[in-house]
Amino acid sequence: MNPTEERQIMTGNPPRAKLPVDRTAEMSFLEHLEELRWRIIKGAGGIGLGIIIAFFFSEFLIEEVLLGPAKSDFIVYTFFEKFFGMNIVDLTLQSRRLPGQFFTYWGMLILVGAILGSPVFFYQMWAFISPALESSEKWKTRLHTVFITTFFLAGICFGYFVLVPFALQFFTQFQIAEVVRNDFDINQYFSSLATWVISCGVIFQLPVISYFLAKFGFLTPEFLRTYRRHAIAACFIISAALTPPDPISQTLVAVPLIFLYQLSIYITKIGVRQRERELKRAFGDIPE
In this predicted model, what pLDDT tens digit does every residue of 207-253 receive, in sequence order? Predict the structure, then answer.
């Protein structure tokens, strides 16, 4: 090759990056809104199906699920008595408002239906978002849905079997004087249970959020390691806000949060590696 040909090759335009296929590129704004509307309708349909299922099992759900932590024979209380030396007592529940039990009944159906229908709702929402973020294959959307749902349900179970029993027993046995009796309103009981359970489900999304932030270049493992001490302090603050002023229950909530933060560091590494691989594929450095 002579010098003239080498000069032409060196001064030529570099190859253009091969952009990933985006099926939303040709959709108008109104078409995006129309797709979002149908995704929401389908997600709400999944929740509606969950409510119907909950309706057919409403007796079991009320006696064993909703009122389970209020009974001294709840499945986890044997463990609490053995390892923590807790004195377990039954809760006394009352309905102080005329429609109190009615609202609790339907609130329970909606809550359980939302939990049962959450995989469908998560899938529909992610199926709408994912084409704008990466080349979308159905198996990736399903895998991400499983990833999100798994951590959400793990948080639900943690809140129901750990946080709720500890909190209920603490408030049941706390008295400022012997003449004051703890009789709890059924609506307050249900709202507290729902708040604790759903809060844990949302908090357990920390690894999921970290993964997607890392995958799209907004978070790195180094950043999480740098602020690890701050995160540990934040975990204890969050646990103090969710639990009664009891060191045992606060520690039981704070330790899983710290574990989730540490897990987020490792999951963030996976997100960063996937992002780097997708960038190389987009610029033609590696084959499809």
Answer: 989 988 888 888 889 999 999 999 999 989 988 887 777 777 788 88
By the 8 A CB rule, do 96 and 54 touch? no
Measured CA to CA, the distance from residue 66 to residue 59 in angstroms comes to: 10
The residue with tokens 């939990």 is: 115
Q: What whole-number distance in Å separates Cα of residue 174 and Cα of residue 158? A: 23
For the stretch 173-213, pLDDT in tens is: 887 877 778 888 998 899 989 999 998 999 999 998 998 88
What global pTM score does this model have? 0.78
Residue listed under structure tokens 């959307």 = 141
Alpha-helical regions (H) of the chain:
3-10, 29-56, 58-60, 77-84, 100-129, 138-158, 164-173, 186-203, 206-215, 221-226, 228-242, 247-282
Cβ distance 88 to 75 under 8 Å? no
